[in-house]
Amino acid sequence: MASTYNNLYLDVRKKLRAADVGEPSLEARELVCFATGKDRDGLSRDGGLYASPELEARTWELVERHLAGEPVAYLIGEWEFYGLPLDISTDVLIPRPDTEVLAEQAIHYCNVLGECRVLDLCAGSGCVGLAIASQVPQARVTLGELSDGALKICRQNIRRNGLSGRVACVETDALQKPPRTLGEFQCIVSNPPYIPSGDIPGLDNSVRDYEPHLALDGGEDGLDFYHTIAEQWKTLLTPGGQLFFEVGIGQADSVLRIMRAVGFGDIQIVKDLHDIPRVVFGTLCSEI
Fold this sequence. Notes:
By secondary structure, this protein is of the alpha/beta class. The chain is built from eleven helices and nine strands. The strands form two sheets. A seven-stranded mixed β-sheet has the order 5-4-3-6-7-9-8, sandwiched between helices. It has a two-stranded antiparallel ribbon with strand order 1-2.
C-alpha cells in the first residue's frame, strides 16, 4: 500500500524506536530526506503527497542497513555540528553532541581574545575548528590531521561552509614533535583518540565496525595523545595561551595531572550534556 511522505517518516520512526535507536525522530527524518531527495522543509511541505514505490524501497533499504549497525551519518554522507553542515565519510569520526562542549569552551575563550590563531589537532572532519571559525570572526584556524582521507573531508567542509579565507589544513602527526613552521597559536583544541586499545573490540558494532580505528585508539591506557600533545605541542602555544582537550569517561583527572605536570595552570574540567566530565583545559604558565 502506498504511503505518504509523512506516513513513511512515521513508520520509519516507529521501527527505529522499537529497535531502541538513540534518536529515532532525528535519524528517521535524515534517512527519509536522503532516500527521497528532499530537504527538511521539502519533507514537511510534501508530507501529504505519496512517495513512489522506488523511493519507499530505497528508504527501507537504508533503514535495514542502519538497523544492522551502519551509522546514519555514513549512510547519508553528512551530519550537522554546531549548526554547520558537514561532509562525513568513514575516514572520520561522526561529530557528536558532547563534542560541542569542547567547541563551546574554546569559542568563549577565543571571543575574549578577538584576533587569534587556533590549532585544531586531530581535526577529523574539522568540526571543532570550523565551529570556532564560524563563531569567532577574527580567528584564523589551522586543521591538523594525519589521515589523507580526513584531510580531504576537512577541505570539503572548509569550502562547504565558506571559510576558505580563514581556515587551512595541514598534515600533522600529533604523536610527533610539532614542526616550528606552523608558527604560534593562542589556542590549541584537540579531540584525540582516547579509547584504550584493549577496549576497542568491545565497542558497539556501529563504532567498532564502521568508525576509523586510527581516530579511536589512544594506546594501552587511552592517554598516549594527551601526554604527547601536552608536553610537545605546548611549544606552539604563546605564554598564557590555552589548551583544550575532549576526554573519555573517567579520564578527566588523569589528563588534568598530565597537563599540570608539564606547566599548565588554572586547569578546569567541564561536564557534558550527560553530566560526565568531558573537557579539560588549562593555561600555559608564562615561565614555560
